[in-house]
């Protein structure tokens, strides 16, 4: 029997190949046929591209695939067969204009153009080809990134390729420049257009943006800041210089809401070079104020707590700025510098030191609405390292030398609560409990601050109570709370407690509220850690507590040991035993020394004494 000859695709007539291709409904199958032989590729590759261009769902477009996979030839072939370079899912337009105009982010499939993809991946040759062949620079994307808009709405806009280039792209400055030169001016339909935000992401584009008018005075952001304000705030000295090159540049331009000048912005951000440049400009007004009557010295006082503030204040004073000008509320720059703006910020100690050195008057504004003096403000919590706290100590000494009252108690209004307002007390209390600064505590004690002024405990708004000074200090140093976090170790707190005891701080109660001695006897109950109690008993003298109070605390612990059981009873026996030994040393013969009736507690007590001694020795 004669064998039939195999006919390869290379020998199949073109008409047959085209008919076979027409019978294939799947683009995947057609692609397999195209790759089966060279003849099939030459004959059917154009058919494959035409079908993709005309029939394929946009998300399966070969143009999108090529943009993702760095295949410029594929894009060229697709374009030659009529591909739309602005391709994206046309059914998504309603989704873009409605769903993504809401103020909250929603889950949506990613929708983007080939230009978005090539820009993000840094395929500059593809980006250039797309732009040269008419790809739109103002085509929206959805879900390509999770960025939200800060200064315009909607909160989650449909971002244009320029946003992708500025914020997300590999070598974004190159893509951004190409887009801008091809007419891109906006990052989204709702944004104000080419602006300072462009160079805040890509500073190398400053000259291009300036030449295109993006840094003109009228090109303000949503908060009313002109490019000159923003460049001063961002420390972009070269951009400031670029703007000032224009003889029509207005150095007195003001923000819309705060009415702040460029000089306000420069000194607030500690921009020393820009401050010098502005002060050298003819026509600069140093005594100008903002909407709250705050001058540039006030702005410097409220700025960052860094090493340039002294130089900036000196420059301003040399140019005649009023160092004592109060704002609309009567607050002076000196008091403003001592105050912190945010709860997690801290006072500008270096500004206080610099202002005092230039003669700022601390008597012009002495208390705020809560009765807080400048001493209260200075002695809030702050990082405990030298470059921060040394200027505070210097300012504290200087204010005392000037004769400012430093021993008055704050009186917080009833509607203020929280970490800043958990106690009404004197500056000495703030130094010991809030700042936890031994040197500041000693400075005030040596100056005559009283260590026994009662403290109003405001931690529980529904149950505020007066307590002794030392009990309030113990509450801050040795009582962990959710707002204060962890209590400092004895090595840090002990120096402060020893100082207060040395200067006569009382361990007794005020108005029947738990005394400092009772507090320190109670606080180790859960962990059976007696290091704090041992420390207090070691440093206390007859000046700190009376024999009657010691005996009362002993009797209280004896009573508790008799009506409780287990570890709690053991705790009270140990405390009573320690207090008895303390009383015998400090008040021999003045208090009852009746021994505790439990045999095995002495072993526990001995261990506790040993642990406590070791801790104190360390």
TrEMBL record:
InterPro entries: Ankyrin_rpt, Ankyrin_rpt-contain_sf. Gene3D superfamilies: Ankyrin repeat-containing domain. ANK repeats lie at residues 110-142, 223-246. Keywords: ANK repeat, Repeat. The keyword Repeat applies. PROSITE patterns: ANK_REP_REGION (PS50297), ANK_REPEAT (PS50088). Transmembrane segments: none annotated. Pfam families: Ank (PF00023), Ank_2 (PF12796). GO terms for cellular component: cytoplasm. This is ANK_REP_REGION domain-containing protein. It comes from Trichoderma simmonsii.
């Amino acid at each position: 029997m004669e064998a039939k000859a195999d006919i390869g695709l290379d020998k199949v007539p073109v008409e047959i190949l085209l008919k076979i291709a027409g019978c294939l409904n799947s683009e995947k199958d057609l692609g397999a046929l195209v790759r089966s032989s060279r003849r099939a590729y030459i004959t059917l590759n154009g058919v494959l591209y035409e079908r993709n261009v005309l029939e394929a769902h946009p998300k399966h477009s070969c143009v999108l695939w090529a943009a993702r996979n760095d295949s410029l030839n594929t894009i060229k072939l697709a374009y030659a067969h009529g591909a739309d370079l602005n391709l994206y899912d046309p059914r998504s337009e309603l989704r873009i204009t409605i769903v993504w105009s809401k103020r909250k982010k929603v889950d949506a499939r990613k929708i983007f153009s080939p230009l978005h993809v090539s820009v993000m991946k840094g395929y500059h040759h593809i980006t250039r080809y797309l732009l040269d062949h008419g790809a739109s620079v103002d085509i929206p994307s959805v879900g390509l990134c999770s960025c939200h808009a800060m200064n315009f709405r909607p909160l989650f806009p449909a971002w244009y390729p320029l946003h992708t280039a500025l914020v997300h792209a590999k070598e974004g400055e190159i893509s951004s420049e190409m887009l801008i030169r091809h007419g891109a001016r906006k990052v989204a339909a709702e944004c104000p257009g080419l602006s300072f935000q462009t160079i805040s992401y890509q500073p190398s584009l400053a000259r291009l943006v300036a030449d295109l008018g993006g840094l003109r005075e009228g090109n303000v952001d949503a908060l009313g800041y002109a490019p000159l304000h923003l460049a001063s705030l961002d420390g972009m000295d070269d951009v400031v210089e670029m703007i000032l090159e224009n003889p029509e540049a207005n150095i007195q331009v003001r923000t819309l809401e705060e009415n702040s000048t460029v000089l306000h912005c420069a000194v607030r951000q500690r921009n020393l070079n820009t401050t010098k440049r502005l002060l050298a400009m003819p026509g600069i007004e140093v005594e100008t104020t903002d909407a709250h009557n705050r001058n540039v010295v006030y702005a410097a006082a409220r700025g960052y707590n860094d090493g340039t503030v002294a130089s900036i204040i000196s420059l301003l004073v040399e140019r005649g700025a009023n160092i004592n000008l109060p704002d609309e509320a009567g607050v002076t720059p000196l008091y403003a510098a001592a105050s912190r703006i945010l709860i997690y910020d801290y006072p500008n100690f270096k500004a206080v030191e610099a202002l005092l050195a230039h003669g700022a008057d601390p008597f012009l504004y002495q208390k705020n609405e809560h009765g807080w003096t400048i001493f209260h403000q200075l002695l809030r919590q702050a990082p405990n390292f030298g470059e921060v706290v040394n200027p505070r100590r210097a300012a504290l000494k200087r204010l005392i030398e000037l004769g400012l009252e430093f021993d008055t108690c704050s009186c917080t209004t009833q509607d203020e609560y929280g970490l800043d307002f958990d106690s009404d007390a004197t500056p000495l209390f703030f130094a010991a409990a809030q700042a936890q600064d031994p040197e500041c505590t000693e400075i005030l004690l040596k100056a005559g601050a009283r260590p026994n002024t009662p403290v109003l405990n405001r931690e529980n708004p529904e149950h505020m109570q007066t307590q002794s000074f030392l009990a309030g200090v113990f509450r801050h140093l040795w009582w962990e709370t959710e707002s204060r976090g962890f209590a400092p170790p004895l090595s840090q707190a002990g120096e402060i407690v020893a100082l207060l005891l040395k200067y006569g701080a009382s361990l007794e109660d005020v108005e029947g509220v738990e005394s400092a001695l009772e507090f320190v006897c109670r606080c180790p109950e859960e962990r059976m850690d007696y290091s704090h109690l041992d420390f207090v008993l070691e440093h206390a003298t007859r000046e700190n507590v009376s024999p009657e109070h010691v005996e009362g605390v002993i009797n209280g612990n004896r009573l508790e040991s008799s009506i409780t059981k287990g570890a709690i009873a053991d705790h009270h026996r140990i405390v009573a035993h320690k207090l008895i030994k303390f009383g015998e040393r400090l008040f021999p013969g003045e208090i009852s020394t009746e021994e505790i009736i439990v045999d095995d507690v002495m072993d526990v007590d001995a261990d506790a004494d040993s642990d406590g001694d070791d801790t104190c020795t360390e």
